[in-house]
Amino acid sequence: MPRVYFDNLANAVTRDDVEEYFSRAGKVRGVLVVTDKASGKSRGFGCVDMEKLDDALHAIKWLNHADLKGKRRLVLSITLLQRSVAVEIDSEAVSVVHAVQSARA
Questions:
Q1: How far apart are CA 78 and CA 3, in angstroms?
Q2: What does the H/E/C string look like for 35-103?
Q3: Which residues have CB under 8 Å from 61's CB, separation 6+?
Q4: Using CA atoms, how far apart are residues 78 and 104, in angstroms rounded to an integer?
Q5: What's residue 32's pLDDT?
Q6: Domain ranges of the chain
Q7: What is the pLDDT of residue 77?
Q8: Cα torsion 43, 52, 77, 99: sign
Q9: pLDDT at 64
Q10: Average pLDDT for consecutive 10-residue bins of the chain (105 residues)?
Q11: Apex 49 CA angle, 54 and 10, nearest 5
Q12: Residue whose C-alpha is closest to residue 7's, from 37, 33, 28
């Protein structure tokens, strides 16, 4: 299951906002938005579990640097189970450059 990590969310962005946003790219299996314990507001980062690698790549291509509630969001990386995947993005396509074994394996 591909996991897309993101950063730079506005504090007002909720888990539901992220799920709705990433659903534009494909089927979302789960969302984690890290929140501050005291305030309950977003700390600006988290991850989304996508159904398929194609969905995750589509999310990176079409949603990377897009505006979500006034802040540009940055997708950092994709993880496939125990593998980290480097992704190359250009205006025409997204491609997997290489995969490396995770230290957790």
A1: 5
A2: ECCCCCCEEEEEEEEECCHHHHHHHHHHHCCCEECCEECEEEEEEECCEEEEEEECCCCEEEEEEEECC
A3: 89, 93, 94
A4: 15
A5: 94
A6: 2-101
A7: 67
A8: positive
A9: 77
A10: 85 89 93 91 90 87 78 66 53 43 39
A11: 110
A12: 33
Distance CA 76, CA 91 (A): 17
pLDDT at 20: 93
- Which pLDDT score, from 0 to 100, does residue 84 have? 55
Q: Which amino acid is at 35?
A: T
Q: How many CB atoms lie within 10 A of CB 59?
A: 26
Write the CB contacts of 14 (distance below 8 Å, at least 6 apart in sequence): 33, 42
| Paired strand residues for 74 | 7
Report the CATH superfamily, name and number, of domain 2-101. RRM (RNA recognition motif) domain (3.30.70.330)
Whether the CB-CB separation of 96 and 59 falls below 8 Å is answered with no
